[in-house]
């Protein structure tokens, strides 16, 4: 429940801080907001709950290991990295096929605690820190969740630091043009780069 409340608060903060042009793309009243969210893919550090209907012995809450894997009884090691919960359901059903005379009971997989998807925002923002929103965010939303830029922030030189194997990739982002009045589509494209788990956004 605490994680759900924090996620809701983060989402509300982000929506309140976003400029009007960005909110214009929000779903209309009565439309499901969940339908507009990108399906969540599993990250290292997430807690997932696996339930095999009718067989309580196989109910598990597992933490995804740093290599993106989990181990499940009678199935063994499962590569969960970047998989949808429904993808894991199929893998487990297939792995359990030899254990049942008839069809395998229904298997459900859910992300109980999406703590693996996290990013940090540093520099000239009002509330720098690490955030675990529970769903994907772009760089503009991330800056908004961090309270928005301070008065002297240079939004034309924002950077995303992303670990790519043994190297650090640096992505230059211009938020100044995106946050001006009537930005073009080209201006917006640079501001809606989707963050990956472990990214650090720096606002100079």
Q: What's the quick description here?
A:
This protein is α+β, with helices and mostly antiparallel strands and 204 residues long. Helix content is 23%, strand content 25%.
Quote the CATH topology of the largest domain: Outer membrane lipoprotein wza fold like
So, the CATH homologous superfamily of the largest domain? Outer membrane lipoprotein wza domain like
Q: Return the CATH class of the largest domain.
A: Alpha Beta
Number of domains: 2
Oligomeric state of shown chains: single chain
Most strands sheet? 5 strands, mixed
Can you write the helix and strand succession as a string?
HHEEEEHEEEHEEHE
What descriptive keywords fit this protein?
three-stranded antiparallel sheet; wza like fold; alpha+beta; Outer membrane lipoprotein wza fold like; disordered N terminus; five-stranded mixed sheet; 204 residues
